[in-house]
Amino acid sequence: MNKEEAMRTTNLLKKSWLRIVFTIMMVMTLVGCGANTLSSSNASSQETTKDTAQSAYTVSSEEKNYLSNKFTGLKAKNADTIGYIYAPGTQLDEPIVQTTDNETYLDKTFEGANEPLMGTVFMDMDNNKNFSDSLTWLFGHARGSQVADHRMFNDVNYYDQQSYMDEHPYVVIETPERKYYYEVAFLIIVPETTAFYRTSFDSTAQFEEQLKEVREKAHTQNKDVEINSSDKYVVLSTCREDDETIRSNLYIRQIPDSELPTFLKENGEKLAYQPTR
Questions:
Q1: Half-sphere exposure of 87 (CA within 13 A, CB side)
Q2: Beta-strand (E) ranges in 135-194?
Q3: CA 22 to chain CA mean position, Å
Q4: Is-contact 237 249, C-beta < 8 A?
Q5: What's residue 224's pLDDT?
Q6: What is the DSSP secondary-structure string of 48-59?
């Protein structure tokens, strides 16, 4: 090999070595980027988990003890008990029952007597008693002037006044496991044969569509409530005193667990149970 050929060989080796070094550096850089991305992703995931944990609603030991004592007493009086409902600032303060039909508790009182126009607040037979359905129906008489004891769902009819709805925006439902908190959404006045009465939907889109239709026809409404297909609603349904074939259906939106910590921090004191029975 002459001197010129030796120099060419040396230059080729240097170029090859530089390419190898460059490749190694690129690989290391990419690996480093990947590690940083993974680290960032893990940090983001941990932060999301942390945020979720902070926003999740947990039942306190005090609430568990309170509910345990309350429902032990209620179930001792009536084994069909599944819940308790009250609306702060009103006389709505009633136990909730459920049985295998929607007729028994039209006349049967919570204590077991058979008294027309008295009855008990009851959940539709087709709803899940844990309030997990998109739309849960509760029925109760509006006793009004017909009987001396006019509590039950009589106050539901007062929500046909916008000022009353604005002044009494929340409802609390207690179950043996936990409390659920609701904001009043809208009240609609309809015939007893209303097509809005249903306990299940073919899709969440269909549920959302019905909610929007109800709101469009509402007599009164909370304009701050946004329609969301993932939300859960309860309907408090009662007859109008002036016409028993007409119904007041008050739709109330369940506050999602993710919103509860903030909601309770702002409203907790106003939601405490104050017996009126």
A1: 25
A2: 135-139, 170-174, 179-191
A3: 58
A4: yes
A5: 96
A6: HHHHHHHH----
Q: How far is CA 2 from the centre of its chain?
A: 88
* 228, two tokens: 């969301």
The tens digit of pLDDT for each residue in 136-159 reads 999 999 876 667 776 789 999 999
**pLDDT mean over 165-181:** 98
For residue 22, pLDDT beyond 90: no
Q: Give, rounded to a whole angstrom, the gap between the first and last alpha carbons of the chain.
A: 112
- Read off the pLDDT of residues 210-246 as tens digits, 9 standing for 90 and up: 999 999 999 999 999 999 999 999 999 999 988 888 9
Burial degree of 55 (CB within 10 A; 0-12, 13-18, 19+): middle
Radius of gyration of the chain (CA): 31
Rounded Cα gap, residues 138 and 92, in angstroms:
13
Helical H runs in the chain? 3-55, 61-77, 104-107, 162-167, 204-216, 260-267
DSSP β-bridge partners for residue 236: 138, 250
At 132, the amino acid letter reads S
3-state SS assignment for residue 35: helix
Nearest 5°: phi and psi at 117?
75, -5
